[in-house]
Amino acid sequence: MASGRDDFVIAIRSAFLKKGTQQRFSLISLIFLSLILIALGSLNFKPINYLKIVINEIVYRSSFIVSTPESYIKNTYLVIKSHFNLYSENEKIKLELENLKKKKLLDEFIISENKRLKEVVDDFYLSSEKILAKVLSDKQSPFLRSIVINKGSKDGINMGMVVLDRDYLVGKIVEVNFTTSRVILLSDLNSKIPVFIEPNGVQAIVSGSGKSYGVVEFTRKNLEKGTFDKKVYTSGYGQLFKPGIPVGNLTWDDDLKKNKVEFFSDFTQLDFVKITSYQRKDL
Amino acid sequence: MERITNEGFFRKIISYGPVIVLFISVLNKIDFNYLGLQFFSFNFVYILIFYWTLKDPKSLRYGAVFLAGLINDVVLNLPIGLSSFNYLLICGVTAYLRNITLRPNAMNDWAFFLVIILIINSISFVAINIIYAVELSYLHYLVNSGMTFLLYPIFSYIFNIYKKLFILKTND
After folding, report:
1. Which of the two residues, B13 and A249, has the higher pLDDT score?
2. How far apart (Å, rounded) are the C-alpha atoms in residues B40 and B31?
3. Closest approach of chain A CAs to the CA of B11, in angstroms?
């Protein structure tokens, strides 16, 4: 019994303490170094943050270069897939276009009326200059839905700025380096944004699901099943986003037995994004 | 003469194959999410480190593994040091396994691999979810562990062929 325990101790000691052949460091020293980095990182130790920024700058650029072949394969796959879906998509778009033409006339009147009314109640938002950025990396693992863009603090990017794909909301800035930044996407599990569900103006929170869609939370109990004409817009509560940025369509999922939000922007197809921030006119 | 020098260079590059693939994997984080397959998520780096540190530790040094972990943390925005710690734990287990094994057995390796990925993913989950209060999907971690475990024999077979073709010849 004692001999068995001795063997175990010897095997463990040999594995962790001895430097193996052609190894420069013993395993235990590197494990301790990792633990020290984790501990100092969790305490927000400044040199660790600087170290992270330096590694970020190098790694993001290298990651972009290394990911080029994979991006090429991915884009080819998506192009082939879109060719297969061309006919059905065309039919769908025709129908949508017909509906949009009908709505356009009414919308133009409503927009100008809304602008006038907002000026009256002093609720008019000014947006900062829009910064165009290229997406360097879009690693959307099940644990993390984020993208890295090629603009950082030197281009005027700040934490919390709003990221748009055309006019659709994509996410917000959560990490700023000197020449790069990280954007948390709406589909990330930790993303939560206050929204209105139109046409009824129901308030809710859209949370990321870790997949390609969002889920509706903290809304009224008897929310109707989502349909194609139910749109989700930012409500502007919390003052981070201005009200009315299009987020997605509310749809009913038969498998999940609940409403979900299909985002207007396809996060797997992001090439360039716009970054901006909003401020109320009276502030 | 020149041909011999070129051959030597080529062999050297080939012998660094596992290290090169490790760094490409952490920088690239190859994922197949665009295929839209619901339960297709695995951690290739775990398989790579486990196999090479178990079968041929000279091909994958601890320093490189530590550095790859730091890069992985940056790419995935994880707490810095966490992936290095996880990867080095795999190295520790494989070193222990090498010490206690007289006759290598593929089934034993596979079983040890399951235990270590469950431990590592549990540590990651606890560290990220509880200490850093970041929300994670437990199901995804479980699916990821399961798929990584199931795919180990396939990659192990491929690595065996690579080792026989290149590494052993290089060391001759």
Report:
1. A249
2. 9
3. 18
Average pLDDT of the segment spanning A116-130: 70
Domain count, chain B: 1
CATH superfamily to which A129-283 belongs? Rod shape-determining protein MreC, domain 1 (2.40.10.340)
- CB contacts of B135 in chain A (<8 Å) are 189-190
Closest CA to A74 of B29, B152, B43: B29
Please say if the pLDDT value at position B1 is more than 50. Answer: no
CB contact under 8 A, A38 and B81: yes
d(Cα A130, Cα A115) in Å, to the nearest integer? 21
Instruction: Report, in angstroms and rounded to the nearest whole number, the Rg of chain A calculated over CA atoms.
Output: 25
- pTM above 0.90? no
First to last CA, chain A: 76
pLDDT at A163: 92
Question: In this model, does residue B159 exceed pLDDT 80?
Answer: yes
User: Got the DSSP string for A258-271?
Assistant: EEEEEESS-GGG-S
Q: Write out the residue range of the structural domain in which residue B73 sits.
A: 2-171
Cβ atoms of A226 and A259 within 8 Å: the answer is yes
Altogether, the residues listed in chain A come to a count of 283
Please name the residue of chain B whose CA is at the shortest distance from the CA of residue A58.
B71
Q: Which residues contact A29 (CB under 8 A, 6 or more apart)?
A: none
Q: What percentage of chain B has pLDDT greater than the value 90?
A: 9
Amino acid (1-letter code) at residue B156: S
